[in-house]
Design goal:
10 helices; 2 strands; two-stranded parallel ribbon; about 240 residues
Amino acid sequence: MLDAILFSALAMTAIIALRYFASSGAFALATRFRRPGYHDRLGPQIRREISWSLVSAAIYGIPAGIVAWGWQERGWTQIYTQWDAMPLWYLPIAPLAYLALHDTWFYWTHRWMHRPRPFRVMHAVHHASRPPTAWAAMSFHPWEALTGAVVIPALVFVIPIHIAMLGLVLAVMTIMGVTNHMGWEMFPRRLVHSRLGGWLITASHHQRHHEEYRCNYGLYFRFWDRLCKTDRGLSERV
């Protein structure tokens, strides 16, 4: 049993690392075409980002692997595979609930990590990327990575979700994590500046956090930033 758990943890670590290289690499390549020369002088920084991200991949992979083993071998979680196991109207509800709860956790832990001591101990690693690049999406100190690694593994124990919808949640996490750090806006202006866009976080919004530190703490949505008056709008540089 221990060997199977270890294999599952190693497999999930490898999957997360490969997903990181595929997604960050693809958007880094897009950045090369969209903003030629943007990364030319950032070689040492990008190497640090990749090093920290590989450590983060292991920290994310271990609990994910344990949970995956428990789901397959012991039925621990609320993940289901049959489309008719829950009403069809529930399918989109679960990923929205996951994203909303993850966003809430991220906002408050992220805001806490901007207090002087937690910032020095762990969050300074992420903000050492100046400017952030597509490779910085998982560039965390291990303690910070741990705060993010427990969220989805915890939610699958309490909120039923179809395996395909869980994949959708992970895809949104990956895409938004990378694109929010690219330093340029990949989404159309008409979306970013629309009424809907006013509630979503994209590169324009998150870039301002990296510029000013004390604002724009959210991950997916601007709800908590607006409610807590920490939303300072979009960066003028993006």
